[in-house]
Amino acid sequence: MFFSVLDLNRNAVTRINSLPSYKSHSLKIGSIFRKQDVSNSIQVLSDCSFEVGSMVEVMSDNGMTIYGVIRWIGVPEGKKNDWAGLELDSEFISSDNSDGMFGTKRYFTCKGNTALFVPLNRCKPDCRFQFNLSLNGIPKPPETHSVTSLEDSDNVPPLGEPEILSRLVGRMRGIQGHLNSCYLDATLFSLFTSSSACDGVNTSADSEEGISHILRRDIVNPLRRSGFVPAESVMNFRKQLGCKSFTTEEKDPEEFIAILLKDVLHLEPLLKFRSHGELSQDAYTHQIIVEKKQVGVLPSVQQLLEISLVSSDLKFEEIPSCLIVQMPRFGKKFKMFSKIIPSTELDITDVLHFSSRQCFLCGRLADYECPHCLMDHKLQPGRIKQYCSTCNTQVHIHPSRQEHAPHKLILPDHVPADAPVQRKTMQLFAVLCINTSHYVSFVKYGPDPRSWIFFDSMADRYGDDNNGYNIPVIRACPEVADFLSQSEEELATANLSQCTDLVQRLLGDAYMCLYQNTESQLASSMSTDVSIT
Questions:
Q1: What residues contact 112, with CB distance under 8 A and at least 6 apart?
Q2: Of the candidates 349, 413, 417, which has an alpha carbon nearest to the alpha carbon of residue 389?
Q3: In Å, what is the CA distance from 111 to each residue of 86, 116, 485, 489?
């Protein structure tokens, strides 16, 4: 059964746009799938027409099969019959390829060397997604072949930049959603696709059939090896979590992350905080808590994190390998800020407990920090205020600051006053978003600033709620990086209404931002002891 959405001012749009439409609208789709001969049904599909969004394959002049998605159908200038403009799965160097131009006219836009225009009759349905027929007439999702036990024991490393576009981008890619699983799908995809921040596992408390091995064997390894995890594997993992609600209900990602890191991966808390003069506190994630008046209308994660920690009198005891920051919101609906800028680099130098700091005014080594100066409107409100002894005295002579109580910083021994401060930074590698109770994620997959992908485990669906399945989709979204690469001043004045849908979604729906310590990741990648085993 096909579902469509009808707009009175537009044509009907097939919800399952990766499957072909049929020339005869009087033909009952259900009758095709009731045929006993499977080959007859496949023949009907191969003889059909296509629509924008259909996934197809084309034989190139040199005999190579090329796969892509139809982005345009029509009669181009200088031609007589229908042609299709394809956006290819991966870059294909040819004199016929472009970025959506054909001749002197642009028909659509995509990455260079990934657009190909061919006669429509040369297109065939993508054979990678030809399906078997189930007894009730609904096509089964593509089957995945199990790997050998030797491969199951391997620790597949995170996908690198060259592999992502060819292995992950497209339909039926990533983790297939099923029965309120989007919170789990988006979280697992964010944590394990291209990052090794949570790969270190202590499996001494786990057997070969334990849950951490199931996570690695059924989800992490297939995701990294083949780019697809079927819904059955996700459901099997959910059953192993030990609570029936994990198989039927939607959970909050922070609840799942705590169980995943503590009980599945057996990891110590990622974050260790120290309050001034108090013992340390541990956590797996950090919930940002600020007052709205403390920041502007378009705050960054950098601003929010600093204000949250200073206001709570908290500092990191050490640089975390992975920092998962929850945005300031209450539940799934109420957001304190309509939009938040996910800082691509997070400078945590000034929120480390035992670290050299820089004087806010003169730049020399700081000796004092004053939380009361945080929101001083004459001293850049919202910025952490740290002073050398001289500047601290001068600032607090002012009558409006005589009630402030700056405290002495605990600094490394024997650091010269004019020594440069080594900045400690963490890199953004994923953003978990939510809109109307549905979770999706953005993932940074390589060192190139434009290496971003968008993942939705339930982007599309084939069949109805009882007899269908979800179609996960992954899209490349370099425009996200283009927007975030602007300076804070440019971002503050940017016309957000002119941004693409994905950029607006990233800014408006951010639920968690995930950062990794690239130095520790480099060190761990060189160690055989820190891996999923």
A1: 91, 98, 99
A2: 417
A3: 12, 11, 19, 28
Written as six digits, the tokens of 96 are 């016929």
Residues in the chain: 533
Contacts of 434 (CB under 8 A, 6+ apart): 332, 440, 509, 511
Domain stops at, among 89, 104, 129: 129
Residue span of the structural domain in which 417 resides: 356-421
264 in a structural domain: no
Label the pairing between strands 101-102 and 407-408. unpaired
pLDDT per residue as tens digits for the range 20-69: 333 333 323 333 233 333 333 333 334 356 888 788 888 877 777 888 88
**CA distances for 470 relative to 136, 141, 466, 473, angstroms:** 17, 9, 11, 10
Q: Can you give the pLDDT at residue 26?
A: 30
| Domain presence at residue 219 | no
Instruction: Tell me which residues are annotated as active site.
Output: 182, 438
| Two structure tokens written together for 322 | 């992975």
Domain assignment of residue 185, yes or no: no
Mean pLDDT per 10-residue interval, the chain, length 533 residues: 32 31 31 34 46 83 80 91 88 78 90 89 78 51 46 70 83 90 95 84 54 91 90 91 75 91 91 79 92 83 92 89 89 78 93 88 92 87 90 94 90 77 92 91 91 94 82 92 84 80 91 87 42 37
Bin 34: left if φ > 0, else alpha if -120 < ψ < 50, else beta: alpha
What integer pLDDT is reported at residue 388 of this predicted model?
Answer: 93
Number of domains comprising the chain: 2
For residue 6, give Cα distances in angstroms to 3, 12, 18, 27, 97: 10, 5, 18, 19, 34
Of 373, 398, 421, the one marking the end of a domain is: 421
Task: Give CA–CA dist 20/8, Å, rounded.
Answer: 23
Tokens found for residue 120: 């429509």
Q: Is residue 320 part of a domain?
A: no
Dihedral (CA of 484, 487, 488, 489) sign: negative
